[in-house]
What we know:
The chain has helices at 42-48, 50-53, 67-74, 94-105, 122-125, 135-141, 143-146, 159-167, 195-209, 213-220, 224-234, 248-270, 278-295, 301-313, 316-320, 324-327, 335-343, 349-360, 363-373, 377-394; strands spanning 10-19, 24-33, 60-64, 82-87, 109-113, 130-134, 151-157, 172-176. The protein is an alpha/beta fold.
Amino acid sequence: MSxxxxxxxxxxxxxxxxxxxxxxxxxxxxxLPLRPDAPLDGAALLAxxxxxxxxxxxxxxxxxxxxxxxxxxxxxxxPAQAQLEWPAFMSASPEAAEAxxxxxxxxxxxxxxxxxxxxxxxxxxxxxxxxxxxxxDARRLGLAALQGKNVLVSNARGAAEFDEAFKLxxxxxTGSPATEAYEAPAGAGKQEIQADLQVIVELMSRLDQGDDxxxxxxxxxxxxSLAFKLLRYMNSAAFGLPVEVSSFxxxxxxxxxxxxKRWLALLLATASKDHAMxxxxxxxxxxxxxxxxxxxxxxxxEARDEMFICGLFSQLDHMLKQPFxxxxxxxxxxxxxxxxxxxxxxxFQPYLELVRAIESESVFDYRQAAEQLMLGAExxxxxxxxxxxxxxxxx
Length: 395
């Protein structure tokens, strides 16, 4: 018997909510009914989504694409720091007004999504703390209308659109911070891997070559902050080790070289000091954890670790500003990871396409990718919620 069968009725998607300092201030979770005419039980949905809120609850912005489901959810007390997106076109009816006021009474934050054809009553307008506009609407309104108005802009795609939305006056932007393939600007010279990441790359190469523990330790000691971060990851709840890891040597004894590679990959994907890369690192971590969760049904530990690395590295070209073909010359990658990232082929490619479909919030792409892998929506959504919860534990 399934614990949350309602997860079989929806497609879930997620995106970072990014502020002007390029900090990820919240996660936007989109809930799209697989059958638009099917009713959604608000209480059952709220129970199923609990892992995404985290403990203690982290900021979560809910984008529920169902009028009846949204009204059902609005009257329930939500966890702290939850916000509901409320489409402007759904705010005129008496039922909607009742749900909006109930949400406000419960302390739920509300975002008015889109432009309303008819002005809201002062009472209803006061229930919304922020307005959320599509990037196209923001462009039409322009800087004078947005600046200083606490406006959130949605559906930005890539760094250029994020920058454009902030220049228009957006307080926050949500969408996909990186396009799928990095292209070096015209006239750009050769890019070297950042000096602060060289130690990680060297450690990965030494692990790949089977160097002894002493040489690995000497390499790691060149960057004490890196050693601290690695041990912090390993002792997090998401890692789930039965004992506390006290040293790099201890970690190797517990994990072995193969398992350690995945955590060095995590460090490489999240160690950039470039503030503009924070949203990309957010996406890389969740991709890695989601692909690992999706791989658990394989019964192959090596495949799970490689799927984790595949998701993590899928945006490494943007973080290191080099195409994957060049990155492979410096960073060792498993063959199946290389096939997916460079050639767009191999056994991991369909899983990467599923993750991209989840991020794009497209029901059509979600169905197509799920059917190719013969995975049900309930299984996929459960994997996603576990991945989001683990990501919060690691951050």
